[in-house]
From TrEMBL:
Keyword terms, alphabetized: Heme, Iron, Metal-binding, Signal
Gene: CYP20A1
GO MF term list: heme binding; iron ion binding; monooxygenase activity; oxidoreductase activity, acting on paired donors, with incorporation or reduction of molecular oxygen
Family statement: Belongs to the cytochrome P450 family.
Organism whose genome encodes this protein: Esox lucius (Northern pike)
Protein name: Cytochrome P450, family 20, subfamily A, polypeptide 1
C-alpha cells in the first residue's frame, strides 16, 4: 500500500514553520495553532473530513494540520500523476514504524530497505506455507462452532473474527507458545490499547493532549515489546523454524530489528485480517447472489476437498469478492507521504516537504471511477480498468502490502470453508456503520445468522 505517514507528531512539532498553502484551493486554518484539527474531530474522522473537503474543493485540495499545510489528492487521475511506481518503501509497514517511533530500516539506504522488505515478505510466505494445516484447523474450529448454533442465533462477527485473527496471527508469527489462551488474551489486551491510539489518537493529535492516555499506550507498548523479545529469545534455542519470527532470526537482523518487525506484523496483521474477514462475511450475508456464485466456484475448483495454497490462485471469483470487500469497506482509507522534491499535480505546484495525503477512501467511492460506487458488486473486477485503478492505489494483495496478502489468504481459507458448509444470512433491520480510522471497522459489532446447506 502506498501509505507513509511520517509520524504525525513529527509533522506537527518538527516543522513548526508556517508556509503558505501555495494557492491550492482549500480551507483556511480555523485556529492558529491547531489549523483544521478541530474540524477533523468534528467530522468524526479524517476520512469523513476529506470526503467533505474534496466535495467542496475538487480533487486537489488543501487544509492545515496544525501549522502545516497539507495537500490531499482525491481521485484516480490526480493520484496517477503523483504516485511513483518505483518506490519500494511506501508501505503500511513504513507508516506503522514511523507511528511507533521505530527508526530501523528507514535510514539504511535503498539496498538495505529492499533487503528488509524481501526478508519480511519471505517470512510471511514461509509461515503461510509451513502452517497452512494449522490455519485450516483454526478456521474449521470456528466454522464448526457456527454449525452447532441454532438457526436463529445471532452471531457477533467482530468478536468471533477478531478472535480468529488473533489466534492465527500470533501462532503463525510467534509460534506454539500462543496455543495457550492466556497468552493470546494478554496479547489482545495490549494490542487493543496500542491500536486504539495508533488508529485514532495520532491522527487527530488528541493523544498528545492527554497524559493518562499516553501513559496507558506507552505501558502497553513496552509490555508488548517485552513479550516479543522473550518470544525471540525462546525461539532462538529451538530447531523448529515454522513461525514468522524464526525466519527473521535466521537472518542477520539485530534483536531490536526482529522485535520491531514482529511488532509491525502482529499489530497490522491482526487488524487487517480481522476486518477483511468481518467485512467479507458481512457483505456476503447481505448478497445471496454473490454467495451462490462463490459457492459454485468453490464446488467447481475444490469439490469436497479443503482449500490448499496452490488452489488459491484458481479461486478467481473469491479474489474478486475480496477485492470488492476492500473497496466497498474502504478497508484502508488514508495514505500519506512527505513530498521529497517539489512536485506538480494538474496545474498545482506542491512545494517540497508538504505532507501529501492520498484520500484512498474518497477515491474508492468516486463515481467517475466506479459505477454505482456504494454497491457491493464483485463483477466490476472483471473489467481490466477496474483492476488497473485498484492496483494503482496499492491494494495489490501481492507485493505492495504483505499484511494484506496474508489477510487475503486467511480470508480465502475462511470463505472457502464457511460458504461450502453454511448459508450466511443477514439480521433484518440491522444498520452497519463504519468507523474509518487507519483501518475501517464496524462501529458496533455486526451480527449474522447461519443456516446449514442441505
Ligand atoms: C521507474 O523505473 C522505470 C524503469 O527503471 C523508469 O523507466 C521510470 O522512469 C521510473 N519512473 C519514475 C517515476 O521514476
Ligand atoms: C511471496 O509469495 C508471493 C505469492 O506467492 C510471491 O509473489 C512473492 O514473490 C513471494 N515473496 C518472496 C520474498 O518470496
Ligand atoms: C514444529 O511446530 C509445529 C507447529 O507449531 C508443530 O506442529 C510440530 O510438531 C513442531 N515440530 C517439532 C519437531 O517440534
Ligand atoms: C546482512 O548481511 C548482508 C550480506 O550477507 C549485508 O549486505 C547486510 O548489510 C547485513 N545487514 C545487517 C543489518 O547487518
Ligand atoms: C484484485 O486486485 C488486484 C490489484 O490490487 C489485481 O492485481 C487482481 O487482479 C485483482 N483480482 C481480481 C480477480 O480482480
Amino acid at each position: 500500500m502506498t501509505f507513509v505517514i511520517i509520524l504525525v507528531g513529527a509533522v506537527l512539532y518538527l516543522y513548526p514553520s508556517s508556509r503558505s498553502a501555495s494557492g491550492i484551493p482549500g480551507l483556511n486554518p480555523t485556529e492558529e495553532k491547531d489549523g483544521n484539527l478541530q474540524d477533523i474531530a468534528n467530522q468524526g474522522s479524517l476520512h469523513e473530513f476529506l470526503a467533505r473537503l474534496h466535495g467542496q474543493f475538487g480533487p486537489v485540495a488543501s487544509f492545515w494540520f496544525g501549522r502545516r499545510p497539507v495537500v490531499s489528492l482525491g481521485s484516480v487521475e490526480q493520484l496517477r500523476q503523483h504516485i511513483n511506481p518505483n518506490r519500494t518503501t511506501d508501505s503500511f509497514e513504513t507508516m506503522l514504524k514511523s507511528l511507533l517511533g521505530y527508526q530501523s530500516g528507514m535510514g539504511g539506504g535503498a539496498t538495505e530497505a529492499l533487503m528488509r522488505k524481501r526478508l519480511y515478505e519471505n517470512a510471511i510466505n514461509n509461515t503461510l506455507e509451513k502452517n497452512f494445516p494449522l490455519l485450516l484447523k483454526l478456521v474449521e474450529e470456528l466454522v464448526g462452532k457456527w454449525q452447532s448454533f441454532p438457526e436463529d442465533q445471532h452471531t457477533p462477527l467482530c468478536a468471533h473474527l477478531l478472535g480468529l485473527a488473533m489466534k492465527a496471527v500470533t501462532q503463525l508469527a510467534l509460534g506454539d507458545r500462543f496455543q495457550k489462551d492466556s497468552e493470546v488474551i494478554r496479547f489482545r489486551k495490549n494490542h487493543e490499547a496500542i491500536w486504539s491510539e495508533i488508529g485514532k489518537g495520532y491522527l487527530d493529535g488528541s493523544m498528545d493532549k492527554s497524559s493518562s492516555r499516553k501513559g496507558h499506550y506507552e505501558r502497553a507498548l513496552t509490555e508488548m515489546e517485552t513479550v516479543l523479545m522473550s518470544v525471540a529469545e525462546q525461539r532462538k534455542g529451538q530447531r523448529n523454524h515454522t513461525a514468522f519470527v524464526d525466519t527473521l532470526l535466521q537472518s542477520n537482523l539485530s534483536d531490536r530489528q526482529v522485535m520491531e518487525d514482529s511488532m509491525v506484523f502482529t499489530l497490522a496483521g491482526c487488524v487487517i485480517t480481522a476486518n477483511l474477514c468481518i467485512w467479507a462475511v458481512h457483505f456476503l450475508s447481505s448478497s445471496e447472489d454473490v454467495q451462490e456464485k462463490l459457492h459454485q466456484e468453490l464446488e467447481d475448483v475444490l469439490g469436497s476437498d479443503p482449500v490448499s495454497l496452490d488452489k488459491i490462485p484458481q479461486l478467481r471469483y473469491c479474489q474478486q469478492v475480496l477485492n470488492e470487500t476492500v473497496r466497498t469497506a474502504k478497508l484502508t482509507p488514508i495514505a500519506a507521504r512527505l513530498q521529497e522534491n517539489e512536485g506538480k499535480v494538474d496545474r498545482h505546484i506542491i512545494p517540497k516537504e508538504t505532507l501529501v495525503i492520498y484520500a484512498l477512501g474518497v477515491v474508492l467511492e468516486d463515481a467517475d471511477t466506479w459505477s454505482r460506487p456504494y454497491k457491493f458488486d464483485p463483477d466490476r473486477f472483471m473489467e481490466d480498468s477496474a483492476r488497473k485503478s485498484f492496483s494503482l492505489l496499492g491494494f495489490s494483495g501481492n507485493q505492495a502490502c504483505p499484511e494484506l496478502r496474508f489477510a487475503y489468504t486467511v480470508a480465502t481459507v475462511l470463505l472457502s470453508t464457511v460458504v461450502r458448509k453454511l448459508k450466511l444470512c443477514k439480521v433484518k433491520g440491522q444498520v452497519v456503520e463504519a468507523r474509518s480510522e487507519l483501518v475501517s471497522t464496524p462501529k458496533d459489532d455486526t451480527w449474522i445468522t447461519v443456516a446449514r446447506r442441505s
